[in-house]
Specification:
The protein has two domains: 45 residues, Signal recognition particle alu RNA binding heterodimer, srp9/1 (2-Layer Sandwich); 75 residues, Roll (2,3-Dihydroxybiphenyl 1,2-Dioxygenase, domain 1), CATH 3.10.180. The chain is globular. The longest helix has 13 residues. The mean pLDDT is 93. Strands 1-4-3-2 form a four-stranded mixed sheet, covered by helices on one side. It starts with 8 loop residues before the first strand and ends in a 10-residue tail after the last strand. The protein is α+β, with helices and mostly antiparallel strands. Strand 3 and strand 4 form a beta hairpin. It is built from two helices and ten strands, in the order βαββββββαβββ.
Length: 141
Amino acid sequence: MDNTTPLFHLAFPVADLEDTLRFYRDVLGCDTGRRTDEWIDFNFWGHQVVAHLSPDEAGKSSLNDVDGHDVPAKHFGLILEWHEWEKLAERLEEKGMDFIIEPYVRFKGKPGEQATMFFKDPSGNALEFKAFRSREQIFAG
C-alpha cells in the first residue's frame, strides 16, 4: 500500500476486550496500537479497526441468503490475494476455527468468482475474508 491509498477505518462493538485482544492479535495476527479500558486499535492488514467495549451491541445481525448460505448482513473483512487467503484459511482451520461458512469458492465459473469464508470473533461479530483471481473480478456483474 503506498502513501496515496486511502486507509479504511472501522469501529465495532465487542463484549470483552481481553477476548477480543487474544482473537485479533493471536488468531488473526493483527498488531495492536493505542488502548484504553474502553477500546483497542488493531492494525488490520494496514487498516485501522477499533474494538469498542459495548456488550449490548456486539454480534447482532440478521441473515441473508447468498449462494445457498446464510450470510450475516452485518460483517466486515478483507479481500486478500488468493495465496494469502489460502494461507489464512489453512491457519484458521489448524486453530480449529468454528466457521459460519467454511472456506470455499463461490460463483464458480461465473463473473465475480471468489474464495470466501465467514467466522465470528469472540463477541459474535461476523468477519468475511475473500479473494478473487484478479482485481477486475471484484465488481464484475
